[in-house]
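Hi there,

I know you've been waiting on this one. I reran it after we fixed the sequence typo, so this is the corrected version. Both the input and the resulting structure follow.
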Amino acid sequence: MPFLITVAAVYAGICLLVFVFQPKLIFMPTRDIIGDPREIGCRFEDVTVKDASGESIHGWFVGHEAAKATVVFCHGNAGNISYRLETLQLLHGLGLAVLIFDYPGYGNSSGSPSEQGIDAAADAMWRYLVEQRRLAPEDIIIWGRSLGGAVAVGLAARHSPKALIVESTFTSIGDMAARLYPWLPVRILSRFSFDAASKVATLGFPKLFVHSREDDIVPFALGKRLFEAAAEPKQFVEIEGFHDGGFLESGEKYLTPVRAFLDSL
């Protein structure tokens, strides 16, 4: 009995630690800005807007002289926008203008990260494009990668963009945690949802899902389940490589279907 009591106490302690320190397990922000779009030959504008709670949300608007559309890009859970210069270069090369922004607590955005705060930041950037830059919603594509894919799905569910592109994304935080920690009651402990699967089922505009079987962070099976949960019209593209660099490693296996999807719009 003493042994069982000790095991139970240790298990309870681990559960408590997971509950308390959950934000640090999910959000890994970096404050330092390590570069800007000038390093990839792109002109840009600094953008700072207030979200619904009054936090200052910072981003970059990278224009394009012959933009086919404008992208709101939602990045992953680590770093900040200055770590996404290769993505900005790729999107610019596809003929797109891009608004990329940092979540609360990331880069030059104030506050600290939370699910509600990230959603509010995304909404503030959407309003910036529609109200200040006078862009029509049907000219805006919402694009997200990793955790940013779940953010993008939520943003798309609250607004009506031209299309949605989701890369290397899970169905929900609960599903991800259950894969990582099958020995913990993670669905009970979870303080976050990021339930992309339930939201994507309601979206009737064109959607493109991208995932690699070699993804070492978000299981391919979860990306496929997210696609299967989505309403039509939708497409799925399988790429190669690991989670953080698959879109670059795959080359034309990634670029060709993405171009085709953009052209179809």
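Quick highlight: The CA atoms of residues 71 and 98 lie 5 Å apart.

Best,
R. S.
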